[in-house]
Each structure stands twice: as structure tokens, then as C-alpha cells.
Specification:
By secondary structure, the protein is of the alpha/beta class. It has ten helices and eight strands. α2 links the parallel β2 and β3. The protein is elongated and about 90 Å long.
């Protein structure tokens, strides 16, 4: 069993003025209950709220919380995205144990108790995994299933239905922060750290306050980032496609020679036999260039080594 420890809870916030007035008190009340219980061994805690360039009153609400509660606020200079905001909070965290959770509290906070117990048992990573997707729409459920199947097919080490609800020990966090790439896909990196890990299932709750800011465009961007950060299968697909079409062209040339030499045949005239293959092959080439360009773009960003986020302001603990 681990000795008494300090806990930091990192919460990315983007336009959450309707949500965090309910989230912060609820989390603090639950964590205070955990402190009073000897089975968790927690000495104290702190919430780290990261304002990811919100356009509403999120930052002013965070600052109000820091005056009376164990809350630290971080304001990013602009909207860098959910993953970068979470990483910003993780770099500030200095506790023995770090928990990450979304501001909407759709992740069941009672599961935090199980995560703390897992840490007490010697686990470095306690990953929250949804038990089901019963509350999701048919479209969201089907796209999520397709996303995880695609990621596994590409060879990406990802845990199905695990998002960003997790507990990390200090040493696992230090390993994570040692990763210096700009395009850091946390959901793929963290499970690959390799320290003792426990999967904890929970039922995801409905969102009670505010509206989700995680648009389809952002979800697609996260999916592309995950694939290109952990897999070279798309590049191999391009090479295989090129080889397949080259072979087909060779077979076509061989067939034309056979027909004209031995059977005195002739090619049937018509625009379709010329235009359609050209359009098809042109589309394949552009698609292949897009895949290669995605990887080149990531290399371009990595080589420049620009900051993954810029902190504009912080509050005192």
C-alpha cells in the first residue's frame, strides 16, 4: 500500500461557464469525503482548471474559485484544443497522483474512489473505460465503433471506449512528459507507457449543463492525428496501391500485345475507356498524395518545435 499522497485533478475547460459552477463544488465535496476515509490514504488535493481560450466567462469564474477553494487556474493564450489544454495542466501538476477528467462530469466521479484504491494497490495507471454507449445516438455509436476498429486495423495501441478519464502516478506522468512531440496523442501514448495498469469500467452520465464543444471536425482531427502519430500503415497502403496498379497496367499491356499479334484484334473506340481510367487513377494519386502530405505536415510541425501551448496567466494556489 502506498503512503499518504497528494492529488492533482486536471480539468480542461472551453466555454464552460454553465458547467464549472456545478462541477467544481461536486468534485470538491466528493474528494473531501475521500480524505476523511482512511481506505484511500489521500492527504490533500487540488483542482487545476485550464481555460483553453474560452470566449465566455469561464476564466473569471475560475479566478473566483481560486480565492476560496483548493483550485489553481491556468489561462492559455488561445484555443489550442482539448489534448493540449490537458497537457498544459499535466505540466503544472506536481502532486504524487494526477487525475484527468472532463468539465462536464459525464464521467462518473464515484469511479475516482476505485482509481484511488487501485493506486493504493500499486497500480500506476487506472484507466476509466465506458461500460456501454447506451446514451449515444446511432450515428455517434456507429462512428465510435468504426473509429476503434480502424485504429486497431492500423496497429494503434488504443483502449476501446477510453477517453481522458484516468489516474496516473507520478512516475508514469514523468514518462509522459518526457515525450516531446508536438502532435501528442495522449490516448495512444499513455496506454503504451507499460507500467502496471488497471481498467475500471463505469457508466457514462448524461450531460446536465451546457453544450458539448467537441464537434465532428474536432473528432475527425483527433482520429487522423491518432492514426498518423502511431501507424505507418497508410503509407504502406499507398505503396501497395501503386504496386497493384502498376501490375494491372503491365497485365493490360501484355493482353493488348497478345490480342493484336495473335488474334488481329483492335481496341474498341470510345471516350469511356480512356477518360474513366484517367479520372480514377488521378483520384487515387491525389488521395495518395494527401496521405503522404499528412505525414510530411506532421514532420514539418515536429521539426519547427514550436510550443504546444502558451500560458497567458495563472492564479495562485
Amino acid at each position: 500500500m502506498n503512503k499518504q499522497y497528494l492529488l492533482d485533478v486536471v480539468i480542461p475547460c472551453y466555454c464552460e461557464e454553465e458547467t464549472i459552477p456545478h462541477t467544481v463544488p461536486e468534485l470538491i465535496n466528493f474528494l473531501n469525503t475521500c480524505i476523511k476515509s482512511s481506505e484511500f490514504g489521500m492527504q490533500s488535493f487540488r483542482l487545476i482548471l485550464v481555460d483553453d481560450g474560452s470566449k465566455d466567462r469561464t476564466w473569471s469564474i475560475i479566478k473566483d474559485f481560486t480565492e476560496k477553494l483548493p483550485v489553481k487556474g491556468i489561462k492559455l493564450s488561445r484555443n489550442y484544443g482539448h489534448q493540449s489544454a490537458m497537457l498544459a495542466g499535466l505540466t503544472i501538476a506536481d502532486a504524487d497522483v494526477v487525475l484527468t477528467i472532463d468539465a462536464d462530469l459525464q464521467d462518473d466521479i464515484s469511479t475516482i474512489g476505485e482509481m484511488l484504491k487501485a493506486y493504493q494497490e500499486g497500480v500506476d495507471l487506472a484507466l476509466g473505460v465506458r461500460s456501454s454507449r447506451g446514451n449515444d445516438s446511432v450515428i455517434k455509436k456507429s462512428t465510435a465503433i468504426g473509429y476503434y476498429k480502424l485504429m486497431r486495423a492500423m496497429g494503434v495501441n488504443i483502449i476501446e471506449d477510453h477517453a481522458d478519464f484516468r489516474l496516473m502516478s507520478r512516475r508514469s506522468l514523468d514518462v509522459l512528459l518526457a515525450h516531446q512531440e508536438v502532435n501528442l496523442f495522449l490516448r495512444g501514448v499513455i496506454p503504451s507507457i507499460g507500467f502496471p495498469t488497471k481498467i475500471i469500467h463505469y457508466e457514462r452520465q448524461d450531460r446536465e449543463f451546457g453544450e458539448t464543444r467537441y464537434t465532428l471536425r474536432k473528432m475527425l482531427g483527433l482520429a487522423i492525428n491518432g492514426i498518423t502519430s502511431f501507424s505507418v500503415v497508410p503509407l504502406r497502403f499507398v505503396a501497395f496501391t501503386g504496386a497493384a496498379f502498376s501490375f494491372a497496367a503491365f497485365v493490360g499491356v501484355f493482353w493488348v500485345i497478345i490480342v493484336r499479334v495473335f488474334f488481329y484484334g483492335d481496341v474498341v473506340p470510345g471516350w469511356a475507356s480512356i477518360a474513366l481510367p484517367i479520372l480514377f487513377l488521378g483520384g487515387v494519386q491525389l488521395f495518395s498524395l494527401g496521405i503522404v502530405g499528412e505525414y510530411i505536415g506532421k514532420i514539418y510541425l515536429e521539426v519547427k518545435k514550436r510550443p504546444r501551448f502558451v500560458i497567458e496567466a495563472t492564479t495562485n494556489d
